[in-house]
Amino acid sequence: MTEPTITREDAGQRGGRYVARIDGQEAELVFSRQGDTVTADHTGVPSALEGRGIGSALLDALLSDARAEGFRILPRCSFVAAQARRHPEWADLFVGDAG
Q1: Which of 1, 53, 74, 98 is the most exposed place for a label (fewest CB within 10 A)?
Q2: Which domain holds residue 83?
Q3: Is residue 35 part of a domain?
Q4: Contact by Cβ (8 Å): 76, 41
Q5: What integer pLDDT is reported at residue 96 of this predicted model?
Q6: Angstrom distance (rounded) from CA 92 to CA 99
């Protein structure tokens, strides 16, 4: 299995996306910004790439940037919200209700 290459593509103050390119396909975690908060809006992984941990790798990149850059995450995406509930040790990185 090829490891994904994850990059962050910023669209200025509006937000952007984290992109994993693997085996000629793309998965993404789309985000928007408002002040010191980044809203995780949507995570999309093509069905051919499901079950390979790519969504988690995208989220790991977002979490890493949150720690490094000092922003907090609002989990509007159901995948990100579910992961936040499973990992209470990440609570300091999230705002709002992960439920």
Answers
A1: 1
A2: 5-93
A3: yes
A4: yes
A5: 74
A6: 16
